[in-house]
Amino acid sequence: MSDPKNTFSLDGHEVPVTAGQTILQAAEASGSWIPTLCHHPEFEPHGSCRVCTVKLNGRTVSACTTPVRAGDVVELDTEELKGLRQNLVQFLFTEGNHFCPSCEQSGDCRLQAVGYALGVTGGHYNPLFPSRRVDASHPDVLLELNRCILCELCVRASAQVDKKDIFALSGRGIDKQLVVNAESGRLADTNLALSDKALSVCPVGAILKKRQGFLVPIGKRTYDERSIRERDLDRAKEDPQ
Amino acid sequence: MSDPICRDLSDILRRHHQDPTRLIQILHDVMAVEGWISKTTITELSRALGLPRGQVEGVVGFYSFFLPEPSGQFRVLFSDNITDEHQGSRALLRTLAEALEVEPGQVRADGRVKIGLTSCTGLCDQGPALLVKGRAIGRLTPERLSVIAGLIESNTPIEQWPPDLFHVESHFWRRDLLLSTPCDPGAAMRALEARGSAATMAELGRSDLRGRGGAGFNTAAKWTACAAAPGPERYIVCNADEGEPGTFKDRELLAHYAHQVIEGMTIAARLVSAQRGFLYLRAEYQFLIAPLLAAFAERRSQGLLGPNILGISGFDFDIELHLGAGAYVCGEESALLESLEGKRGIPRNRPPYPVTHGYLNKPTVLNNVETFLAAAQIALHGAEWFCAVGTPKSRGTKILSVAGDVERPGTYEFPFGTTIRAILDEAGAKGVQAVQVSGPAGMLLSASELDRKLAFEDVPSAGSVMAFDQSRDLLGVTQNFVRFFAHESCGFCTPCRVGTTLNRQRMDRIVSGHGTRHDVEDLESVARLMRASSHCGLGHFAANPVVDLLRKFRPKVDRRLASLEVLPSFDLDAALGPARELTGRDDAGAHLSEEGP
Q1: What is the structure's pLDDT at A4?
Q2: How many residue pairs from chains A and B have C-beta atoms closer than 8 A?
Q3: What are A87-130's pLDDT values in tens digits?
Q4: Taking 60 as the threshold, does the pLDDT of residue B565 lie above it?
């Protein structure tokens, strides 16, 4: 049916591609889900979590940043790549302090949902148990860095949409951390507002609006009713890029 | 606003034209005046430069040379490369710490001194080495350390320390094609003008010169692509950030062949029509700043740099020196460009590539020191001259830093195709157990592989060759390399940020005799993941030392694994440390022995 000149191969199926599309965009448009954590359709692709890693013509690349062209061969759901993505999610659980049963964000958390979707049943590596800051200084917002996965979505949202640059990154390597734009280092001393885009993009429970954590009961939350796969694909259908 | 610190800050800002792309240079100047960078300084700088405060804080937090808290009047950092370690750097560190009565890693109570470790300082041919207030001192001995201790104790300003301490020796042991053929200042540029730009680019293409920084990309293809990229502004950047542990040949080239390097940059500028260039020098080589600036000035006075070069109207090109600040990842070209723009050195997503979107997103040629030097020689002597040596896929010669267990550590130029054995023989290596080529990100070769050849198609090298004799513990070598990568990972992508730390933990356990088969399996899976999914070359290659160790020296690893069937994944006795500290106890009863009571 499809014109071979305008398709690429995705796990053996010919999938249409339009000029300038990334692998992720083309795959989602065709109804194939690729897990992502640092990606948000409203922002420039970032490519830092690597959970969307696929093989393009035999080479591993991040699907969110890499353009695809007609005739390309993309591997997505091979055993090797599924194992790799599970491993990456385990890395993130190992790196931070993630205690899903007691986390306000449980059920609304992309990291948790991607973990379930990929069949991650345990962290495998001994947790690093880092000592990280909790900033409860702001009257309406809690900054819980134990759960931060360093996706930089809040950094990007605050810079590009809110034009406030409230969040930034400091440190390097495993000591990299989110910092806020105040000499005191406290969120209360920034010009953060409840309407800021930066408050709505966190894929985990690192940036939380206070007094709202349990308004929606467990069992009725974002990924309790529909899987992350279905939700992401619905969103892609509503907002084709 | 009249206190002296504020005046210094505004002086510094004025000197750098309040240009935010010069943030790293500005922070160097602040460090020189204040010794650290305070929260209020960060706020002041962000206001003056029009940058978000968090961004300035992030830059300070990224680079090892910038200190967000007071770290003593004299900060002493011992080079932690494996060759320094083998030459006794750890014992020397303890000697100095004892002489100064200071705990390593802590500022002495009077604020005078702090002693610690840093990544390789590029003095492996004259180690062990250290940096004090950023200035390099090599050939450390207990005697020299006692002089240093005395100078610190007497609070002698570093400018008044005996110059001999800071003398950097030069050890060229073998010169071949590039280093033995004279190239007088301006000669290669005149040859270019005589031959014409198009013909010179073609000559460079025929020479098949490949980048000497490691990746081996075809130089003429890079320059041609940059020349063809749209837009009026173009840049030439020389990568002199050699941070690969064990490498120091660029230090020697910049000290003794600076004119040829600059000439190569100027030729590139002529061929791609660039007007501005940068030389990005690693912060550990501050002793090269003055001679390099002098070389720039000399060439300006000779009409070889600046406006109307060689008297040709419109041939304008000048070079600025830009100092790095202690981040190995900035040797990666796109991270270097970010750093050059005054940002954290995070490698960019590619495509687009620097040839079209480089410095400030403008077309940029970025090459290694040695590549520019070779390009100048090719412009002068032609492709045929260059191709007379080497192999069909690796033309010309390679300049190497040879260090470790050899009699004559130093700089060597060898034709491509030379065997590793011949290189080691010439340097006087005896009883070789293994050799690390191209630094920790390169290859660990066993003694049975020494007939392999130095070439892009066999054993490629960005410059470093480190030999280890039979007395060396290869697990300790790998541990050192793994520690290096954990320290230098930029932290952008998950696999490298987490994987380098997981590898470090596992190597530490194995080397200390607490490792199990499970740790080895983890090392293998982490290595696979890092290679397959990391964002940049640092992450792709950071597990190479582990992979090579397990593949080539597995029995050595297995022998070190603990024989106990069940073993806690942590050190039980060390876990009691905080309890001992709290209770003030350190008697036998406050310790657990592995054998049990």
Answers
A1: 52
A2: 123
A3: 999 999 999 999 999 999 999 999 999 999 999 998 899 999 99
A4: no
- Please give the tally of structural domains in chain A: 2
Evaluate if residue B4 carries a pLDDT over 60: no
Residues A83 and A185 in one domain: no
| Residues B197 and B324 grouped into a single domain | yes
Q: What is the pLDDT of residue A241?
A: 55
Tell me: do A168 and A203 sit in the same domain: yes
How many domains does chain B fold into?
Answer: 6
Residues 6+ apart with CB under 8 A from B158: B74, B132, B133, B135
Distance in angstroms (rounded) separating the CA atoms of residues B347 and B350: 9
Q: Which of B387, B417, B437 is the last residue of a domain?
A: B387
What's the rounded Cα separation, in Å, for the pair A192 and A204?
Answer: 19
Domain shared by B271 and B359, yes or no: yes
Q: pLDDT for B79-89, tens place per residue? A: 999 999 999 99
The residue-averaged pLDDT of A9-26 equals 95
Band (A234; pLDDT cuts 50, 70, 90): very high
| Residues B206 and B98 placed together within one structural domain of the fold | no
Structure token pair of residue B405: 């267990």
Q: Are residues B445 and B483 in the same domain?
A: no
pLDDT over 70 for what percent of chain B? 97
- Alpha-carbon span A143 to A178, nearest angstrom: 10
Same domain, yes or no, for B307 and B367? yes
Residue B486 has pLDDT above 60, yes or no: yes
Contact B326, B65 (CB under 8 A): yes
- Is the pLDDT confidence value at B596 over 60? no
**CB-based contact A49 B494, cutoff 8 Å:** yes
ipTM over 0.90: yes
Q: What is the pTM of this model?
A: 0.94
Half-sphere exposure of B342 (CA within 13 A, CB side): 21
Of residues A94, A168, A173, nearest to B54 (C-beta): A168
Strand order across the beta sheet in which B172-174 lies: B172-174, B410-415, B397-404, B464-469, B432-437, B443-446
**Surface of B (130-159) touching A: CB under 8 A:** none
- Determine the distance in angstroms separating the CA of B197 from the nearest CA of chain A, rounded to an integer: 35
What pLDDT score was predicted for residue B2? 42
* Residue numbers of B between 503 and 542 with CB closer than 8 Å to A: 505, 522, 525, 528-529, 532-535
Give the closest-approach CA distance of A202 to chain B in angstroms. Answer: 17
Q: What is the mean pLDDT of chain B?
A: 95
Flag whether B158 is in a domain: yes
B contact test, residue of A170, A177, A184, A192 with most B CBs within 10 A: A170
Structural domain for A92, as ranges: 1-127+215-241
Residue B392 in any domain: the answer is no
CATH number at A184 reads 3.30.70.20
Residues A138 and A226 in one domain: no
If asked whether residues B185 and B145 sit together in one domain, one would say no
Claim to verify: residue B221 and residue B96 sit in the same structural domain: no
Distance from A91 to chain B by nearest Cα, in Å? 6
- B534: nearest CA in chain A? A50
* B149 and B125 within one domain: yes
For residue B174, the cross-strand partners are B412
Instruction: Measure the CA dihedral A208/A213/A215/A221, to 10°.
Output: 90
- B443-446/B364-368 β-pairing: unpaired
Q: Distance from B43 to chain A by nearest Cα, in Å?
A: 7
Q: Residue B158 pLDDT more than 90?
A: yes
Q: In angstroms, rounded to a whole number, what is the distance separating the alpha carbons of residues B330 and B347?
A: 8
Instruction: For residue B81, give its domain range.
Output: 74-169
Average model confidence (pLDDT) for chain A? 95
In a domain, B68, yes or no: no
Q: What is the mean pLDDT of residues B243-261?
A: 97
pLDDT in the model for residue B403: 97
For residues A191 and A171, state if they share a domain. yes
CB within 8 Å: A168 and B57: yes
The per-residue pLDDT for B574 is 83
- Burial class for B109, CB neighbours closer than 10 Å (0-12, 13-18, 19+): exposed
- Look up the CATH number of the domain holding residue A79: 3.10.20.740
Token pair of A101 as six digits: 């049963």
